[in-house]
Design goal:
This protein has 225 residues and is of the alpha/beta class. It has 2 domains: 2-99 and 182-197, ATPase, nucleotide binding domain (Nucleotidyltransferase, domain 5), CATH 3.30.420; 101-171, Nucleotidyltransferase, domain 5 (2-Layer Sandwich). Helices cover 32% and strands 28% of the residues. It has helices spanning 39-53, 73-90, 101-107, 144-153, 162-166, 168-171, 184-197, and strands at residues 2-7, 12-21, 24-34, 61-67, 94-97, 113-120, 123-129, 135-142, 158-160. It has a 5-stranded mixed β-sheet with strand order 3-2-1-4-5, sandwiched between helices. A hairpin with a 2-residue loop joins strand 6 (113-120) and strand 7. The longest helix is centred in the middle third of the chain and has 18 residues, at 73-90. It is globular and about 50 Å long. Keywords: Acyltransferase, Transferase. One of its GO terms (molecular function) is tRNA N(6)-L-threonylcarbamoyladenine synthase activity. Pfam families: TsaD. Its EC number is 2.3.1.234. Residues 36-148 form the Gcp-like domain.
Length: 225
């Protein structure tokens, strides 16, 4: 089965076509461009490109997997709206996976690992995974110093993700070079059981974790003195 994977929860805009079979999951084509200001401009062309790379049409897809975040509002919405719209138009299921799982799960190799992505405002989105790649804490958002304390409590020995790179001095952990952003193969593997079983699709609820910067006005200022 051909499955489209999209993620726009970080500055990396990712689209991939993977093949899910009884024997495993394999990437057939993948595109990733790091640009925090161009999610809307980049994702649709990348979806077209990966489909063209495997000589496939949207109608050939059996399912869509989307990273649910956590991530900034505007960028994250691009991926989820794209996935939900394509799923509805094509009549195929959509499956959501926590985007941090796409960083922390493949990085776990017998030791606890912290996955952290940049949340701006001097904070990180974070989660902790045990040696088998199972999430044991998070996802959440906090200042790097707070995350460092939680990581010590959970005996974390290594960190991954662009947030870990940015705040390595505060986290006080060795940082692996990769994965820096959600891995489409990992996202697909985490949804593979549902895909093979033909499970009902997910509503793709975004993991924002905090309120938006823009809020509606609560009142009106008088015009006259």
């Amino acid at each position: 089965m051909l499955v489209l994977v999209v993620d726009s929860s970080t500055p990396a805009v990712t689209a991939a076509v993977v093949e899910v079979s009884a024997d495993g999951v394999a990437v057939r084509a993948s595109r990733c461009t790091v640009d925090a200001r161009a999610h809307g401009e980049l994702l649709a062309p990348q979806v077209d490109a990966v489909l063209a790379d495997v000589d496939a049409r949207p109608a050939d897809l059996a399912a869509i997997v989307a990273g649910l975040g956590p991530g900034p509002f505007t960028g994250l919405r691009v991926g989820l709206v794209t996935a939900a719209t394509m799923g509805q138009v094509l009549g195929i299921p959509t499956y959501g996976v926590c985007s941090l799982d796409g960083i922390g799960h493949p990085a776990a190799a017998g030791e606890p690992v912290l996955a952290a992505s940049d949340a701006r405002r001097r904070e990180v989105y974070w989660a902790v995974y045990d040696g088998a790649g199972e999430r044991v804490a998070g996802p959440d958002v906090a200042a790097p110093a707070v995350v460092a304390e939680r990581a010590r409590d959970l005996a974390v020995t290594v960190a991954v993700g662009d947030g870990a790179h940015r705040y390595a001095d505060v986290l006080g952990l060795p940082v692996r070079e990769e994965p820096r952003y959600p891995d489409p193969l990992a996202l697909a593997r985490l949804a593979a059981e549902r895909i093979r079983a033909g499970a009902p699709g997910d509503p793709l609820t975004p993991l924002y974790l905090r309120r938006p910067d823009a809020v509606a006005a609560t009142g009106h200022k008088p015009v006259l003195p």
